[in-house]
Amino acid sequence: MVVATARGTLDEALAQLRRLSEVLAVIVAQRDGLVIAANSSRRLEPRKLAAMAASIVGTSEMAVSELEQGAFREVMVQSDDGTVLGVGAGEEAILIALVGRDANVGLVSLSLKRSAKEIEEFLSTAGGKEILESLHGGPVG
Amino acid sequence: MREVWVGLNAIADEIREISDVMAFALVRRDGTIVTHGLMSSADPKVVAAMTAAISGTAELATEQLRQGRFLRTIVECEHGKILITDAGRQALLVFLVFSDANLGLVLMQLEKVGRKIADMLDRNLSPHGGSGVDEETLFVDRME
Hints:
Chain A is of the alpha+beta class. Chain A is built from 4 helices and 5 strands, in the order αββαβββαα.
């Protein structure tokens, strides 16, 4: 029951991001790439996006620390037809978005960072922890 | 071979002239360093390996998600931004810029310099154009 309501909170946060124009997918994933929650257009495979974005975020964080540039904030992969954005959402998770070519990347980036903070707080609550545990099939660390 | 290095050095000087660029590196896609203007605290080999890894995954993601041609990766952090773009078939160009940099302007320069390097490397290192000089030599040459 707790998990069900907690899921609702996450899903609502993602649905809100999806409402921004040209946002094709938003995913909360664990840092190892496992999907926690996703809201994406039907022709996209969230697991694939999550796995690749997690690896990009991980290496980016390492690069930032090697170059002594302070805390990592965000990574953006830009291509002809769109942009993949990734931000950290606490110790456990990352928040990922895939947007189309005509999206307002600045606005999406801002909303993503704001939501990431909420998701970070949420994942540290009892309901959030339970979701993470249910992914692992047991208590986290 | 020598003229490639003269050309690369000229381009490196050109990059140093760009305002807002703190540091730069030209790395091979396999994660080895070609030339750089990094701060002394950073290990060029580590930077090369990591930027190549980021770019490799980013390009793979672009392809897998059918997002067309890969353009660039931007990593935003507390004190600045790391910009990575490709410079031809074999190299990647990395800029480290201040966080308050005019991103539009810097990206334009990044693209321009990237194209210049691409032209030069692909011309000099192509199997038919380079009189037996392969990319391996470029790296070894630099290390000596």
